[in-house]
Amino acid sequence: MTQRISKYQKFKMMNPIIQFFKYIFLSIKIMVIVAGGHGGTRNVN
User: Fold this and answer.
1) Which keywords does UniProt give here (predicted)?
2) Is the predicted pLDDT of residue 29 greater than 60, yes or no?
């Protein structure tokens, strides 16, 4: 039973972590695009 709980907790902990990393990766990507001006449509200025 303890193994089941550990496995469930591990899975539950991994899910938010993956989503958090995904969010951070997306934020960094957007920041790099905005800072570098690689957006294409934003290259008007």
Assistant:
1) Membrane, Transmembrane, Transmembrane helix
2) yes
